[in-house]
Design a protein that fits this description.
Number of strands: 7
Structural class: alpha+beta
Largest sheet: 5 strands, mixed
Number of helices: 10
Strand order of the largest sheet: 2-3-1-4-5
Order of helices and strands: HHHEHEEHEHEHHEEHH
Helix content: 40-55%
Distance between the termini: 63 Å
Strand content: 15-25%
Shape: elongated
């Protein structure tokens, strides 16, 4: 009875989702409704439409980033410069995300307002995490050089990828966590620590992630894991060229200057926390 109930419910769902009657009959094995045995063409059409309507769950990496300090930025900065810098950052994100594509890796990128969502799927999780982390380090470095400062997180797990909307456990995990850290940086969601830690070479050899006590709203995440984005600034004395009229500064000078000029104590704490991470 339960099987028949499920079958009837699924048939109603397919009708609701616009499947042709012939394909529904094939799915339900209703030979009496078909004038002849279904062909391979019909079966392939059914498979293709099901793949379109009901995307398969995949395991991979979800990255959520949001740009700090965008609200009200037009009051103190040229809107034209802000838009120009943001567009340059998104273009770089798209370029680096597209560079991840291979026979085994499938990335997507969505950007809206001041938020960026990147998903990456593939069968080799070690390769997946390594390539994604390397791309993110370059994204962070490029964004900072454009006066765009990201806070965000990486979640590893199951989700349903789509060009327009991403849903699933991993995206829920990232959405709950990504605004909690009080700094500029990218950290691993607590639920994803095991996936990262099990790949020892990423932590021990390539130094893409580091263990760190991550400052969160009202608390500290002891022994958290953070993307080692300052790797993109191998020479901390490097002058950051940007499109503003401000004189060029090193990364540390830029952070110290923002601490000194901040009128908001909560923002100042974020910059302090960022400086502590850079100087660790």
């Amino acid at each position: 009875m339960s099987f028949l109930f499920f079958k009837k419910s699924w048939e109603q769902q397919m009708v609701h989702d616009g499947f042709p009657a012939k394909l529904i009959a094939i799915k339900m094995r209703k030979k009496s409704l078909l004038s002849k045995k279904w062909s391979a063409v019909d079966i392939n059409q059914l498979i293709d439409l099901e793949g379109e309507k009901y995307p398969a769950k995949k395991k991979g990496v979800v990255v959520l980033l949001d740009a700090l300090g965008i609200k009200g930025i037009w009051k103190s900065n040229s809107p034209t410069n802000v838009q120009k810098n943001w567009n340059a950052v998104i273009a770089k994100c798209r370029l680096l995300t597209n560079d991840l594509k291979s026979d085994d890796i499938s990335p997507t990128l969505n950007a809206f307002s001041d938020t960026v969502i990147i998903t990456v799927t593939g069968s080799d999780m070690k390769n997946l995490i390594t390539k994604t982390a390397e791309a993110l380090i370059h994204i962070m470095g490029f964004a900072i050089r454009q006066n765009i400062f990201f806070r965000g997180c990486i979640s590893i797990g199951d989700f349903f990828p789509d060009p327009n909307i991403v849903i699933g456990k991993a995206i829920d995990d990232a959405a709950q966590y990504y605004q909690m850290p009080e700094w500029i940086g990218v950290s691993i969601t607590p639920g994803s620590h095991k996936s990262i830690s099990s790949i020892n070479s990423i932590l021990d050899e390539q130094k893409l992630f580091v263990e760190y006590d991550i400052p969160l709203k009202n608390t500290i995440e002891k022994h958290g894991l953070a993307l080692n984005w300052p790797n993109d600034f191998a020479n901390m004395d490097e002058k950051l060229e940007n499109s503003t009229e401000e004189p060029s500064q090193t990364l540390i000078e830029l952070v110290e200057n923002n601490i000194e000029n901040s009128d908001d104590i909560t923002v100042s704490f974020k910059w302090h926390n960022t400086l502590n991470f850079i100087k660790r």
